[in-house]
Amino acid sequence: MTDNSAAIDIPVIRAKRESQFGLMWRRFKRHRLALVSLWIVIAFYLVALLAEFLAPADPAAYSARYTYAPPQGIQFFSTNEDGSWQFFPHVNGYATEIDPKAMRRTFVLDPEVEIPVQFFVPSDPYRLAGVIPMSVKFIGVTEARAPFFVLGADRLGRDLLSRLIHGTRISLSIGLAGVTLSLFFGIIIGGFAGYYGGWFDSAVMRVVEFIRSMPTIPLWLGLAAALPKDWSALQTYFAITIILSLIGWTELARVVRGRFLSLRTEDFVTAAQLDGASDWRIITRHMVPSFMSHIIAAATLAIPGMILAETALSFLGLGLQAPIVSWGTLLQDAQNIRTLASAPWLLTPGICVVVIILSMNFFGDGLRDAADPHGR
Fold first, then answer.
1. Can you tell me the distance from the alpha carbon of 243 to that of 181, in angstroms, rounded to the nearest whole number?
2. d(Cα 358, Cα 365) in Å, to the nearest integer?
3. Is the predicted pLDDT of residue 162 greater than 70, yes or no?
4. Is the Cβ–Cβ distance between 317 and 221 less than 8 Å?
5. Residue 52 and residue 59: Cα distance in Å, rounded?
6. Would you call 249 exposed, middle or buried from its count of C-beta atoms within 10 A (0-12, 13-18, 19+)?
7. Has this prediction a pTM greater than 0.70?
8. Is 300 helix (H, G, I), strand (E, B) or coil?
9. How far apart are CA 61 and CA 163, in angstroms?
10. Neighbouring residues of 250: CB distance < 8 A, sequence distance ≥ 6
11. Phi and psi at residue 77, to the nearest 5°
12. Structural contact between residues 108 and 92, judged by C-beta atoms closer than 8 angstroms
């Protein structure tokens, strides 16, 4: 008897496989504060990358006419004579007054003077990130000689916003460069110490303990003070980065060493050894990738320390110096109480330091929780 019934299609259920980083990202998204912090960090690094385009003026350009000029808030609407509103981006001009107590000139905003503000305004030619030739700024005034100080001006009449944007590139890049070098030293030295053990492990751990036992701030001050005074700004920049890296690798080396001590007896390491793999291949292709997520989390939490170290050194006058613009050098102008009383906007770089440090710490905490295989 022939069965003429139609064949029934049985769906094939395929198991969905997700990578380690996919699992980390899915768990990381549940941490709302860390996710918001991630976007804040990305925004800061985009500002650092596009510094020349976003800065309204040259950070070194000064105007003695506008020393300690207060911030001009951007207003997007203006009132017509008939009382109606129109879209008209502008800032108010300045009027001068004489302080009867201090007997010095002060600036106040004049609501009667409206200076037009334009987006994508033409400017002098420059190179974005030193590579791409451009001749347009994101925002600026249409009048060439009109004042435009969104965050105010410093003691030389320089635009604080432009200097803050360029300082963001220096401060954040030192954090990245310092952590990159610290990762290299920490993974290599700590990895070999944990993999081989013996006298090399003991020697490395004694060096780590010696460095970590020294007071951090005096050590930074001593190393920074040893830099030659005749070095260029670029040489000083790289020297500060290397100094911070030589001190910051110890914590990561201890973490990597401990992980290697526990991993070198695992079955996959033994199988690689029996298969004839070299020690370098076992370390770089098998052991390090097995806890790469923890390394990423540790590096994320180390960047704020690098940024704070550079800011502290520059603020104390032993780190980066003019003409380099960083958050630390900008805060040097905020050391005078009298200056802060008349120009509190000079503390804006300190606010940026607080925001980026908190954001990176929250981001690192979320990343560490997402990388924890025993977490929920």
1. 10
2. 11
3. yes
4. no
5. 9
6. buried
7. yes
8. helix
9. 10
10. 186, 208, 211, 212
11. -130, 150
12. no
